[in-house]
Write a structure and sequence with these properties.
about 170 residues, mainly alpha
Amino acid sequence: MGKKAIEISNLDVDKLIQMLNEALAEEWLAYYQYWVGARVMEGPMRSEVEPELLLHANEELAHAELIINRILQLGGTPILNPAKWTEYAKCPYAEPVDPYIEEILKQNLDGERCAIQRYEEIADYTNGKDHATYQMAITILNDELEHEHDIEDFLTDINRLKEDIKKFRL
């Protein structure tokens, strides 16, 4: 962190680096959860949902890059060993053992809601104290809110499709 940044910051930088490393671990796990889920997913609307999940995966990877850069700017060290990701992450990785599209989407929705909470915490911690980290957290938070909305829309569409099929069968 630069001299002026240190001068105007009013927070525990070590605590912030820990929070960012936790978020970093979660972003890597989210990337893989989206990526592998999109690959193994089965069911209705798969061809519409898969590209969106892969887009979300790439956005999670971009978040990881932002976080790594910020950790380094703060004088910290990002998690160096992928085996530690699950140890650091407070948002759990949900293995897609049931490849049905609704289950994959529900797992991703749970992950997004956890990420939203994570970035609210980072934004609250840095608001008015570390403007660069605050802005990064808000930017990522907005992406996570959009992801949540996308997934909710897909789940609504699938439920509507199921209701229409029931009507058709009667």
